[in-house]
Amino acid sequence: MGFSPDNLKGFILALLSSAFIGASFIIKKKGLRRAAAASGVRAGFGGYSYLLEPLWWTGMITMIVGEVANFVAYAFAPAILVTPLGALSIIVSAVLAHFILKEKLHHLGVLGCVMCIAGSVVIVIHAPQEKPITSVHEIWSMATQTAFLLYVASVIVLVFVLIFHFAPQYGHTNVLIYVGICSLMGSLSVMSVKALGTSLKLTFEGNNQLIYPQTWFFMVVVLTCVITQMNYLNKALDTFNTAIVSPIYYVMFTTLTILASVIMFKDWDGQGVGSIISEICGFIVVLSGTILLHSTKDYDRGTPRSIYAPLSPSLSTRLCTSNGESMKHVEEDMVSAEDVCLRRQELY
């Protein structure tokens, strides 16, 4: 199947998003270090001098640009193409941390990066073409089809059971509880983001979709899902080691997102069995590379559990991990809640 112009636009935007977001973590961390050196108080211990540091704001702006690019990417390309590419921000961050922050990237970590790139190439080559959509009503028809409504109902039931039954009892001992909640909600947030992004794209092309209530409904769903997703991902990062949360979250989130996209947008309709198998294999290679990259980090197992910063509303759904940093630097470079994504890498 040929690589359509829309797929190409989505692919380029996803790459730019990963590059900007991966670089933003390093820029913000440099800004935090510079601010701490000037004021003598680190952000992790209540310092806010980084708010006056231009380098930190440069990192924030870079991250926002990346998130916007990722949002727009969903309007052009299927989630099965865009979402796995979020893993590339991990590579960008890890490589930049190795050269700029002098944080060692192990040989197996390099292999993990290569696996992520190889898997992403396979996914891109075999990605399905985005079906043309001319109205938000078409998206609404997809969202209200029986199969997807059953998926949404299943997700809502599971989320409520996890929140009200399992979370109070096992949330602080089983990492799958909090991660499961934000992964399930994340799959719905990506579908809503794609619907909203497509509506805005049509509006900018002259076909106004803002006059339809469905567009605003998708916007409300986006906000609801993202807020819930952020809340429980922060709980997971606060309770468990980031090196454990990150790969589990990436596997669950990306898998559920692809499943939701296949059901709602029927991404695999018209594709051959060979292409579908290739996409699945590429996805598995990316997952394996991500897990390998995280498993090779050095970290001090005796370091006290620390509170990690919350995610930004990363609608690209990137992995929230430790930015390719060695855990032995956690205490030294711990960030405050205002440092929105410094500890999120983890994508993305």
TrEMBL record:
It is found in: Cell membrane; Early endosome; Membrane. Keywords: Cell membrane, Endosome, Ion transport, Magnesium, Membrane, Transmembrane, Transmembrane helix, Transport. The chain crosses the membrane at residues 6-27, 48-65, 71-101, 108-128, 148-168, 175-196, 216-233, 245-265, 271-293. The keyword Membrane applies. GO terms for molecular function: magnesium ion transmembrane transporter activity. One of its GO terms (cellular component) is early endosome. Its main location: membrane. InterPro entries: EmrE-like, Mg_trans_NIPA. SUPFAM superfamilies: Multidrug resistance efflux transporter EmrE. It is a multi-pass membrane protein. Homodimer. Acts as a Mg(2+) transporter. Can also transport other divalent cations such as Fe(2+), Sr(2+), Ba(2+), Mn(2+) and Co(2+) but to a much less extent than Mg(2+). Belongs to the NIPA (TC 2.A.7) family. This is Probable magnesium transporter. The gene is LOC120263940.
